[in-house]
Amino acid sequence: FIYFKMQTSIRVSNRPVLHATKRIVTINGSNRAKCAVKASKAVLLKVENLEAKIASTGQPVLNGVNLIVHEGETHAIMGKNGSGKSTFSKVLVGHPDYIITNGSVEFRGKDLLVLEPEERSHLGLFLSFQSPVEIPGVSNIDFLRMAYNAKSKASGGKELDPLEFYAYIMPKLELLKMDSTFLNRNVNEGFSGGEKKRNEILQLAALESQMAILDEIDSGLDIDALRDVSAAVNTLR
């Protein structure tokens, strides 16, 4: 997991979602990520001297970001508003609003920057947004099944029909302690803040991604919703 959080006076270790954090990375004023702990596991993500600009204006937004994430690690990237946290996450998943001007990114040993956004997802990269969008007219179960089948097809796996997928997704719901009625509701339509964030975690569970980027997953949640979302995240670790 990579967890993005606005920097405040609250200690990170007091946040429920971060109780198992092994490394804290801070993006400072120059947007350079600094790592203080040495790990011995296989490298999952390697970012070297990454620089990017806004496509429409040419304004630089990332300046020499370096980050290494090993398998099984949880990282917290902290910084003030406008320091580049969300931009960094969007650049990693291939958002078209940004252009890479320098640096390299490897994910699971492959050059991430030459891949289309859907190819990055199929490779196992997942991004949870600060404000998940609503998709009227598309049920959760249809959305999840299409996403699962697209990833499975890309990796040469078996695509599931509606009945097979229902049998696949039900244990995920039970694991996350979510009601089955979530499946029949339109994606995020009319959801509370906590329901939207839990629905993001359900998507993560369904896709079984190798790396999850959680952009302020606790944003806008009350204490009860934060507890539920934190428990769901830690269940998948």
UniProtKB/TrEMBL annotation:
Domain ABC transporter: residue ranges: 62-216
Bilayer-spanning residue ranges: none
Database matches in NCBIfam families: sufC
GO molecular function, a single term: ATP hydrolysis activity
Entry keywords, A to Z: ATP-binding, Nucleotide-binding
Species name: Polytomella parva
PANTHER family: ABC TRANSPORTER I FAMILY MEMBER 6, CHLOROPLASTIC (PTHR43204:SF1)
Protein name according to UniProt: ABC superfamily ATPase
Source superkingdom: Eukaryota
Matches recorded under Pfam families: ABC_tran (PF00005)
